[in-house]
Amino acid sequence: MHIGFLGLGNMGAPMARNLLKAGHQLTVFDLSAAAVSSLVEAGAHSAASPAVLAQADVELIITMLPAAAHVKSVYLGEDGLLAHVRPGVTLIDSSTIDPLSAREVASAARQHGNPMLDAPVSGGTGGAAAGTLTFMVGGDVADFDRTQPILAAMGKNIVHCGDAGNGQVAKVANNMLLGISMIGVAEAMALGVALGMDAKVLAGIINTSSGRCWSSEVYNPFPGVLENVPAARGYSGGFGSDLMLKDLGLASEAAKQVRQPVILGALAQQLYQTFSAQGNGGLDFSAIINLYRKDAEA
Ligand code: NAD
User: Fold this and answer.
1) Ligand 1: residue whose CA is nearest its atom 7
2) Rounded to an integer, what distance in angstroms lies between the CA atom of residue 42 and that of residue 36?
């Protein structure tokens, strides 16, 4: 299939490479010339703008952009995709944005005669490179069925979550819980160690008791508990605190729009904001434990 791909960053570039590997023809666009030339070297064609890409003979367009403002400008802008794309071309936005913006863009696409799916991902840059992402997809089920084989070149779990915007709903709900649970584990681990307990023993107890969760078992924030996690390498790599802050902001914003309380989500957002303001936004999100550790450097 001839696919258009916009947004060749940390996630988009490896995803686009996997589409090439699966034998698809690709036309790409990014504001960064270096990102484009790296994909062109791998076999993609380049387009000079979203408008030119939309007018190429593509059957499907995928976007992987930083935030809602970029998504709105790329789709709805004067020189954006919807102003130039032929009706019938399917559009998939895999960026993480708030559900209401996703619904607004999907509705504009529908009016223009273009089926649209929101398909945010989890799995990080490692999952993007390995082609093992989870796609949470919102939109018409027939469009989902049609595009599933394409998404399968980039991901392992591809889940239909309901109507337009529901992929983003699943993503913000999961990541809000992840932020809250990481802070909970950090608080409990720091308390236990401050009271004289060995971190590894405490983690072992938690992980065979009712406090067990992904943040304690698979991604424990206390250094020395697990190998091959960011806590074991100075909190480098992994999922940046600023990305978690962004997702917690999306959850709070979406909650406000439906007047739904997210008390712990808002508190988690403030804690990550504090951590980011202290200059730690680039550290993995499990480094939030350094807000609690008296002996920590950060
Ligand atoms: P990134 O900043 O590395 O890449 C974004 C790319 O979009 C850049 O190459 C940038 O030049 C390009 N871009 C920006 N505006 C553009 C425009 N108007 N037209 C064309 N290209 C434009 O971001 P990323 O880490 O690849 O993340 C992309 C999305 O995926 C975000 O919404 C993020 O929240 C989400 N996400 C990221 C991760 C992760 O671990 N990095 C995991 C899951 C989801």
Assistant:
1) 7
2) 10
